[in-house]
Amino acid sequence: MTDELTDDEGHGSEELLDALTDYILDQLSGDAFVKWVHIEVGHALKAAQQVTLGDVVTSKQVSGAAIKYALEWRIEGTIPELVGEIASRIHERTFNEADDEVDFVSEQSFAAIAEKFMSNPAFQRVVDLFYHSPLVRSSVAWLLYRMAVDSLQRNRQQAGAVPGVGALLRLTSSVSTRVAPGIPHKADELFREFIARIVSGVISHVDTPDMSDAREPVVAAAMEMFEQHASESFSTVGAAIGPDDIEDFLILGFEFWREFRGTRSIRTAIEEGVAVFFGKYSRHTLAELLDEIGVTREDMIEEALRFAPRVISVVQDNGMLDAFVRRQFKDFTESERVLKLLK
Question: Is residue 45 a contact partner of residue 287, using CB atoms and an 8 Å limit?
């Protein structure tokens, strides 16, 4: 660009910039823009046939971006604060319609899913791990302990209602508390330990149940439950589930995801997933990838015409598009080469 333009040169460059700006704005308006989208999408797809995925991006670049936004990107306070409002909107739109039936999958699809789930070998392995886990043993022991304690308490209450027996029970309880105050607590600990040992011994000597034998009754029970609730309206479900419940579930899921995203497991999953994808598709052209994921020429045109016209209209009305075009081409119209052409 020259340091100083003469009046004729300045006038000529301004007219060229005005003409160029008007032309671009016209091409991005009305039918001209629709025609432009169709033409440019066609050119883009032709170019995509000549370029492979590995030509334009690397596995390291993609995994780095994925790790940044999935693991390292900070979630500020605004998003969690929206959970309550989102939960309220979900409940209002989903559960307040009395006439709408619960739109689960069809009965045939549900039956097929249940059958495949039960017949999956991985399901049997999960049952085996669950069956012999310390959590199951402690849970069963606690359940048996609570059942025994509740039974004793009910029997004691019934006995206390009998004239004379109630007074005797209170007297013996008072005496035992004064003479040996730690005995009830110690006896409770011994009783719980005794139950835990029994449960552990029984489970360790019993094989994991073969779920293939239980497939039919389990699937039948699932289908029965499905049929009972398939015709219910969402308002019926909404009577049992409130906005606060939905908010709690959303917060629970968000907190779990926020903790899980910091683990090595999710980082490994992203890195290996991207590596496998690139190992298979890095030599594929971009056009082949679009076909692989089902994106067609019509899809690209449809989405371009869905979003672009509104955005372009806004930036045209407020002058931002005009200013942008002028910034891009002002130096060009004042360049020495153009000024020579304008003479």
Answer: yes
